[in-house]
């Protein structure tokens, strides 16, 4: 569906509920070098069945009040605005209490009309508007009484783990008398560069853009073009097939044969071999795997760290090798790459970014949402029947997230490339496993 026949009923800026309390009009939030390079929106949708005790208008009111509460002390920066520090050339968040966008809408459809929520639906982009620089919750009701909470959050503000905590906190504040689920750690200086910076390792997973001398960080984006969207749903049976395949000819005893690692290895293979209209065996394909730093640093970051505590681990090989190697070799590479990202390496990356103001450099990025529990968050009206990412214009990132029975991988590619990707994906399995 391209259009969900949506009628907008309310579109407002929600300020903190008590703007005078602890309000410092000149307060600015420091953003780490990792925060600086992630200036793009992540839209998500969270669908709920009808609940007679919580009609959509009550849900919208509860959510608005919950948001107002959160925008006070723990998340005051989410009611602020980005500003460029002219002296340092760095992005900061000006905590000016300008507010977060909040939209209430209704659709002529029922939830059943939308079909399988997992299937990429362009219409879902109407459920998570991206018209503001920061958070934009949207509550859309459907004629069946069900509703959707859509959120579009700039990645500078939150990574996946801190978005999970924000959503848990939003849910608790929608109750009458509940404390925060988790108090966020808002000290982004924990990931500040060292002074002076000390780069100890080569970092081929980043590049320094060849740009004129501009003030401010470069934007991590890609050109907009017509894309096809497919969610590859791998059942537990398909995952077990990949794990068995990964165990064949395995040379390393330390390889972690996890659901994510086998799916990421297969996605990498399909992407590398579908890239060129004319196959180029010597082309090097680099997979970037997003890793959480919280437990990798010394001392570890708090689990409640609010901000971007993520870096990329890289795996590189020629297309010829990717095609001829045993699947176990690719899984081994995907498994081993994150081990490189320890405390010393992470600090070296942050210092490299301080000097070079660079961006991630790879053919394809895989981001795991398997540990995120968006679908487990309990609101007063219950848990979502589905939570997941919304398709975007980015063809360089694959989101891997939990399915009902297995794992889903959301892939966005130009039509011809998608056609080759699908063929390579299906050819990898016996017909009895992939219908």
UniProtKB/TrEMBL annotation:
<comment type="similarity">
    <text>Belongs to the plant acyltransferase family.</text>
</comment>
<dbReference type="InterPro" id="IPR023213">
    <property type="entry name" value="CAT-like_dom_sf"/>
</dbReference>
<dbReference type="InterPro" id="IPR050317">
    <property type="entry name" value="Plant_Fungal_Acyltransferase"/>
</dbReference>
<protein>
    <submittedName>
        <fullName>Anthranilate N-benzoyltransferase protein 1</fullName>
    </submittedName>
</protein>
<dbReference type="GO" id="GO:0016747">
    <property type="term" value="F:acyltransferase activity, transferring groups other than amino-acyl groups"/>
</dbReference>
<dbReference type="Pfam" id="PF02458">
    <property type="entry name" value="Transferase"/>
</dbReference>
